[in-house]
Amino acid sequence: MSEFSKYFDEYSFNARVKPALFLVFPIFISLLVLFEPSRTWTGSTVTFLVAFGVIYFAANQMSAKGNALQDKLFKKWGGAPTTIMLRHTDNTIDSVTKSRYMDRLALLISNFDPTTPEYEQANPERADELYRSASNYLREHTRDTTIYPLIFKENVAYGFARNIRAFKSLGIFITVSSLLVSLVVIYPDATTLGSMSPRLVIQEISFPYLGLIAIHLSMLWVWIFLVTENWVKLRGFAYAKRLYSACEKITVI
After folding, report:
1. Can you give the pTM of this predicted structure?
2. What tens-digit pLDDT sequence spans the chain (253 residues)?
3. Could you give the CA distance from residue 1 to residue 200 in angstroms, rounded to a whole number?
4. Do residues 30 and 212 lie in contact, with contact meaning Cβ atoms separated by under 8 Å?
5. Neighbours of 186 (CB within 10 A)
6. I need a surface site. Which of 79, 116, 122, 205 has the fewest CB within 10 A?
7. Which residues cross the membrane (predicted)?
8. Among 30, 16, 23, 48, which Cα is nearest to 219's?
């Protein structure tokens, strides 16, 4: 893992490379377990070089696909979490804290005016413009990860969730394909398995192969049940909440 991190900045490595690694992991774990030459020194070198190329390409695609998914999700949700959170109709932040944040943002941003529920209802587009302006200002003034490490961590967590969700269909396809190929290689005469008890089937398969099957099944479960839109949404709102909390730490110029 450390070898890959040398070629990417911290955000790219955590939010793009790690999802790419997770995406192609079933292929490479299958090669290592099923294809003995890949475990030799030469084979490991070739495997690493191929893996690096595939992962580098996949990591670059992560950003494009992730942004495309983000546009669709924001449209479905009615806006970005950083916009939704400042709306008076949203209760992610309590009304007292939200009012305090708006007063603070008015001090930081020259053309930002705190809104009221009535103004927001009468001018929803203008209100959203103000909220987007506020979030843009905070992003630009909280880029120093040594001063705002928690914002950076939440941003990375959101980027990871968004990017990996964008490849959910492909991830399921790769995992299922790797599982089927593994089963064919492990037990070519699969027709006889139907007449055997589960205990005998397990006894017929060596421990490394059982472990490989378990990994594929576990990853398939993760792709189906954990890589969800709701997960992305939770991470997005967690980032937005952390971003707005920084407004009280930024010095007024």
Report:
1. 0.87
2. 555 556 677 898 899 888 988 998 898 888 888 776 555 555 555 555 556 666 777 777 888 999 999 999 999 999 999 999 999 999 999 999 999 999 999 999 988 999 999 999 999 999 999 999 999 999 999 999 999 999 999 999 999 999 999 999 999 999 999 999 988 887 754 445 555 555 555 555 666 778 898 999 999 999 999 999 999 999 999 999 999 999 999 886 6
3. 38
4. yes
5. 18
6. 122
7. 20-35, 41-59, 170-187, 207-227
8. 23
Q: CA 161, 164, 168, 174 torsion: positive or negative?
A: negative
Matching residue, tokens 């302006």: 133
In angstroms, the CA 65 to CA 123 distance is 33
Cβ(4)–Cβ(55) below 8 Å? yes
Residue 183 CB coordination number (10 Å)? 17
Helix residue ranges per DSSP H, 123-247: 124-140, 149-166, 168-186, 198-204, 207-225, 229-245
99 within 8 A of 114, measured Cβ to Cβ? yes
- Separation of alpha carbons 221 and 172, rounded Å: 9
Q: Are 89 and 42 in contact (CB under 8 A)?
A: no
Q: Which of 247, 248, 230, 234 has its CA nearest to residue 92? A: 234
Q: How far apart are CA 200 and CA 194, in angstroms?
A: 11
What pLDDT was estimated at residue 184?
A: 83
Q: Which residues contact residue 36 at a Cβ distance below 8 angstroms, ignoring those fewer than 6 apart?
A: none
Buried/exposed code over 28-43 (b: 16+ C-beta within 10 A; e: otherwise): bbbbbbbeeebeeeee
What CA–CA distance (Å, rounded) separates 3 from 145? 23
